[in-house]
Amino acid sequence: MRANKYAGMCATCGDDVAVEAGQLVGLPGRWMTLCGRCTPQPPPRGEHDGWHRAPLASLDFETTGIDPHHDRVLSYALLGDDGHDVNGLINPGIPIPPQSAAVHGLTAEALVDAPIPEVGIALVIDWVQSVIDRGAGLVVFNAAYDLTMLRAEATRWGLRQPDWQRLLVVDPYVIDWGIERGALGPRRLTDVAAYYEVTLDNAHDAAADAWAARNVAVEIGARHPEVGMSSLAILMHSQRGWYADRAEDWNSYARTAGRSLDDPSGWPLASGLEPPAAATA
Ligand SMILES: [Zn+2]
Fold first, then answer.
1. Ligand 1 centroid from CA 39, angstroms
2. CA of 1 to the centre of ligand 1 (A)
3. pLDDT of residue 277
4. How many of the other CB atoms lie within 10 Å of CB of 231?
5. How far apart are CA 265 and CA 107, in angstroms?
6. What is the three-class DSSP state of 8?
7. How far apart are CA 199 and CA 207, in angstroms?
8. Could you tell me the distance, in angstroms and rounded to a whole number, from the CA of residue 182 to the centre of ligand 1?
9. Could you tell me the distance, in angstroms and rounded to a whole number, from the CA of residue 187 to the centre of ligand 1?
């Protein structure tokens, strides 16, 4: 959910809602405004055991843009399930679009002394492999983006790939959609964190985002027993299904609106090594 940018009427109780005083919910093309009193709340925490009580790793990147096949990693935060965290910068060797720098504050000048990608990406890949080898869950908010980019970077620089088949991903973006079926609208990390009352003070800093994503994942597991009590292997299967459902939902809207289509099988990695040839209808 996000704050309503325009004044409106609460879809539940009919009260007037001033700008930013309520929430915008719903599906693309079918938005609704809700007042503060009618805004949905997450269920309370349960006492059940599950993956949310086990140590989880978490990964986040800041990048040059939004295309996982062609954009580059500029900074990474790797929060270890073993309690050991690694943060780092990478000098991509290419210009950084000003609109990206405006989001995360990473400029070419700031990265001039950072390691080259062959070094920085190799470190990230070794770390991901160590998480896989320990059998820990890896939290990645919108994994289809970060992990697809990591795979593309590894290919670009001739590095080995992590053992992707064995990676256990916990993606709060996809799980949140699966629980709510999109009814609360497209929810970015800031939206989901606010809903679950997870602090996110410095959004678009990789470490802050990785911390918040992991805390959101833990809240989801604790508040939704059917999710928290799944094994991570079964949760992988569920997330693939939810991602596919979300993509089909989006695509049915996108076809009518002339927007580009999502790949239903693109989680946790885009299918194939190249972007889909017919990404735009
Ligand atoms: Zn209301």
1. 7
2. 15
3. 43
4. 11
5. 34
6. strand
7. 13
8. 20
9. 20
Structure tokens given for 155:
């290919």
Interval 57-78: pLDDT, tens: 999 999 999 999 999 999 999 9
Instruction: Give me the domains of the chain, ranges plus CATH numbers.
Output: 53-172+196-257 (3.30.420.10)
Burial of 151 (0-12, 13-18, 19+ CB in 10 A): buried
Task: Specify whether the CB–CB gap between 269 and 147 falls below 8 A.
Answer: yes
Class of residue 147 by CB neighbours under 10 A (exposed 0-12, middle 13-18, buried 19+): buried
- Tens digit of each residue's pLDDT (9 = 90 or more) over 204-260: 899 999 999 999 999 999 999 999 999 999 999 999 999 999 999 999 999 999 999
Q: Is the peptide bond before 268 cis (omega within 30 degrees of 0)?
A: yes
Sequence-ordered list of residues with C-beta below 8 angstroms from that of 272, at least 6 positions apart, any chain: none
Tokens (6 digits) for 200: 């996110």
- Lookup: tokens for 212: 């918040």
